[in-house]
Amino acid sequence: MKKLAFYVLVSVLLTACSGRKSPAPIATIDKAGGSYTKSHRNSLKSDKYQVKRGETLYAIAWRAGIDFRHLARINNISKPYEIYPGQVLLLKNTAKISSKNTQSKQPVNLNKKSEKNNKKTVANKKTGEYGKNQADQKPKNIKKNDPFPSKVRRWRYPSEGKIIEAYSSKENGNNGLDFGGRAGDPIIAAADGKVVYAGSALRGYGNLVIVKHNNDYLSAYAHNKVLKVKEQDWVKAGQVIAEMGNSGSEDVRLHFEIRFRGRSVNPLKYLPRR
């Protein structure tokens, strides 16, 4: 009877211990910086968004997963794409609706007299004067004045650390590459470009740098300890732009992304082989 009572007591204790251990995996998941940050990246799913202090149009487009030019277009924002706190922006879900509304409102204000006057002025400008005006308005200077190249010549690894998490195209997958390392390790620009965002306003990214390489490609560097650049800075490929850290993450890492026209792509398709 004593042995039987002993075995019963042991089994009860083991059951109690196993019950206490069951919440552990949940706590581990909650503490994992990767799981937390991924759930908040690209989290703008609503039709509208109110700009917060420190955000830029590029950063908001990044979170929404859309091209910054599309975001600027549907909100009638011209270069240099300045926005202000409290401003309400339409996102891609309302672009079609807003375009229909604007199309239905545009033709209402025309009257016959103004149309006749316009026809006369157009007829007069068909002389040499019109030709001069037309020549002056040619968009030839737009491309010449555009400081960004049409193509990114070469991509470089932003960190010498090992890749600890690969890119995944699955839903809620990793939108880029995660590099391991030590706090303070140098983070370099993957290609020439201009810093269009430097700050910590984007939830899930910590201290973040976004670099515009041309009108199609952007790259991002997240979870930094220290930022070495500021917005509007021009950077060269290989230039140190930050120090690796764990801001917005439980462990020290660099989260690196490349976006093509607003959509995340696999960086390994662009980076050279190691």
Polypeptide structure, described:
With about 270 residues, the chain is an alpha+beta fold. It folds into three domains: about 60 residues, Membrane-bound Lytic Murein Transglycosylase D, Chain A, CATH 3.10.350.10; about 35 residues, no CATH class; about 110 residues, Distorted Sandwich (Glucose Permease (Domain IIA)), CATH 2.70.70.10. About 35% of the residues lie in helices and about 20% in strands. The chain contains nine helices and twelve strands. A hairpin with a 2-residue loop joins strand 11 and strand 12. The longest helix is centred in the N-terminal third of the chain and has 20 residues.
Pairing-aware structural class of the strands and helices?
Answer: alpha+beta
> How many domains make up the 3D coordinates?
3
Strand content: 15-25%
Uncertain runs are: 8-37, 94-110, 125-143
Q: What can be said about the biggest beta sheet?
A: 10 strands, antiparallel
Helix/strand order: HHHEHHEHHHHEEEEEEEEEE
Gap between N and C termini: 68 Å
Helix content: 25-40%
The CATH fourth-level homologous superfamily of the largest domain: Glucose Permease (Domain IIA)
CATH architecture classification of the largest domain: Distorted Sandwich
What is the β-strand count? 12
CATH class of the largest domain, anyone? Mainly Beta
Q: How many helical elements?
A: 9
Radius of gyration: 27 Å
CATH topology (fold) name of the largest domain: Glucose Permease (Domain IIA)
Shape: globular
Mean pLDDT over the full residue set: 76
